[in-house]
Amino acid sequence: MKKTTENEKAGRFFGFSRNIFFTGLTSFLTDTSVKMVYSVMPMFLLSIGASKTSLAIIEGIAESTASLIKAVSGFWSDRIGKNKPFMLIGYGLSALIIPLYTLVFSPIQVLILRFLERFGKGIRTAPRDSLIAGSIEKGDSGRSFGLQKAMDNSGAIAGPLIAFLILSALPGNYRLIFLIAGIPALLAIVVIAFGIKEAGKHKDKLFRTFHFRDFPARYWFFLVIIFIFTLGNSTDALLLVKANEAGLKVAFIPLVFLLTNAVSVVASIPVGSLADRKGKEKTLVAGFLIYALVYFGFGFTEDKGAIVALFALYGLYSAATDGIQKAFISDVIDENKKGTGLGIYNALLGLTLLPASLIAGILYDRVNSSVPFYFGAATASVSAILMLLFLIRFRKAR
Q1: Triad 214, 219, 223: Cα angle to 5°
Q2: pTM of the complete model
């Protein structure tokens, strides 16, 4: 008699195992909430007296926090062999913080709340991905992680769209957006509590000792390239500010953010398949060059139509880099070190994002609005060249 697996016992939802489906639903609800807030946060901060530099610092600290904590929470969850508690704490913290934006009246208060909310993201992300990996049925990994990515990006579309509708009906009412954004975040906690089951881990998949020498030279070389690129990859909030200064009405700002995510959703799977066939290094070179073109365009033009087109192209850059970088790292390191390797990668992004945002904010405020974008275009171009050298240097290692 065939042995019934845990996933079969738990049932299936729309062709996916219980954990895969409900984790995707959790991501959709939370990202809807977070992106409602994020799509209007730059304009809200400026409305309460924040400078461009303050805006950049706030976003830099917030996102740096999430990236750094991902490495720690992933290590910890692997060590104890549990994921759901980290998800409840991480998503719960975000659900608690988001409605509190309705009460703030100064940039420093926003900084504190953004720090705490992103801290929650840092706690939950790596354990969530680990739970997905532990719940995948044989031969179903691509489809399962594809659902996660699709649901995440769908929330990134729904959130700005809801914000747009609210601002269209009630111009300037940011606080109502923050209040309503708390609803899907709270629903996500309900989904985790009652829909997700802990995915058990074998002892041989728990904590392992870390040694720098266990990672190949091309892994460390790649991290150097990512460091250089990220120095010019500051907070997206400045792109939204530039769109507003170019003449796009505040109510339409969430829509350009939606456009970026929509293009990314459509392009991610085809670009990922192309990277598998043609090589991830080549795809990353193309992604860096697209970024350079987009940022040069933001620095060069003030035309509203061109700005909208650049936001669409920015979604293509996202599809060609975000997931591809993680997939590439996964390819170049050993099976039992993938979590650690990706954790170091996330930590590097976090450490670099804050100075990147600070540099961009200072250049925006004290030089002019074009210089930070030219700086980003320059670092992306250098990264593309280094990636080509990487491809030549390590061709035989592929």
Answers
A1: 125
A2: 0.74
